[in-house]
């Protein structure tokens, strides 16, 4: 999904700027840990989660890189990129340890909700959702030159999703349409042959 949606996000960033695209994709990515809660109840949710996350991480990472290149002074871009790489690597190495420590603190505790029971992993996913929403508060304060409106990105994505689903449905229906044409054509051909024989 990342490869499939990169060009779409690139065009959106060129049109509206990196910040609105990052806000949109970041908000969707914040919700994805909640989807992991339901994977145990419906395994097909695993595919949905990866589908959404792959599409959104593509836009978020592209926007993040472009925004960093835009904000960084020309003579210090290499230093900014190096610091960004180090910060991401440190966070990626500390996150699993932090997750394990939080799971240890939660222990065997389970939370009963009306229709389901959340175990310690599922509670960790809920905390992950809250944690992912926090950076968007800082991103909103950032000023990007030439940034477009967030609502326009939402409309662009909505129309892109509808167009993509329409293309997918049309592609899936090609065999059915072809068979339908054959079914319509066969009686016509039989009728033509019958008329020829009568003549």
Question: How is this structure best described in words?
Answer:
The protein is an all-alpha fold and 199 residues long. Helix content is 82%, strand content 2%. It is built from six helices and two strands, in the order H-H-H-H-E-E-H-H. Strands 1-2 form a two-stranded antiparallel ribbon. The longest helix has 49 residues, at 150-198. 15% of the residues are buried.
Topology of this protein?
Elements lengths: L1 H15 L1 H20 L7 H27 L5 H30 L4 E2 L4 E2 L1 H22 L8 H49 L1
Antiparallel strand pairs: 1-2
Helix pairs in contact: 1-2, 1-3, 2-3, 2-5, 4-5
List keywords for this structure.
two-stranded antiparallel sheet, single chain, mainly alpha, 199 residues, 6 helices
Number of helices: 6
- Count of beta strands: 2
Apparent shape? flat
Q: Give the class from helix and strand content and strand pairing.
A: mainly alpha
User: How confident overall, as mean pLDDT?
Assistant: 80
Determine the strand fraction and express it as a percent band: under 5%
Radius of gyration: 25 Å
**Which series of helices and strands comes N to C?**
HHHHEEHH
Poorly predicted runs are: none
Helicity level, as a percent range?
over 70%
Instruction: Note the gap between the termini.
Output: 60 Å
Q: Strands across the major sheet, in which order?
A: 1-2
* Largest sheet composition: 2 strands, antiparallel
């Amino acid at each position: 999904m990342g490869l499939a949606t990169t060009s779409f996000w690139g065009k959106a960033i060129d049109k509206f700027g990196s910040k609105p695209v990052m806000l949109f994709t970041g908000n969707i990515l914040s919700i994805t840990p909640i989807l992991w809660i339901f994977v145990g109840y419906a395994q097909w949710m695993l595919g949905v989660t990866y589908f959404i996350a792959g599409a959104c991480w593509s836009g978020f990472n592209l926007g993040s890189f472009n925004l960093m290149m835009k904000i960084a002074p020309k003579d210090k871009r290499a230093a900014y990129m190096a610091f960004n790489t180090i910060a991401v690597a440190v966070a990626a190495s500390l996150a699993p340890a932090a997750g394990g420590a939080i799971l240890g603190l939660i222990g065997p505790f389970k939370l009963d909700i009306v229709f389901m029971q959340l175990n310690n992993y599922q509670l960790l996913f809920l905390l992950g959702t809250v944690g992912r929403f926090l950076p968007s508060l800082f991103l909103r304060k950032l000023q990007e030159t030439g940034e477009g409106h967030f609502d326009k990105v939402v409309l662009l994505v909505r129309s892109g999703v509808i167009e993509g689903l329409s293309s997918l449905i049309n592609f899936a229906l090609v065999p059915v349409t072809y068979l339908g044409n054959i079914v319509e054509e066969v009686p016509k051909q039989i009728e033509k042959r019958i008329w020829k024989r009568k003549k």
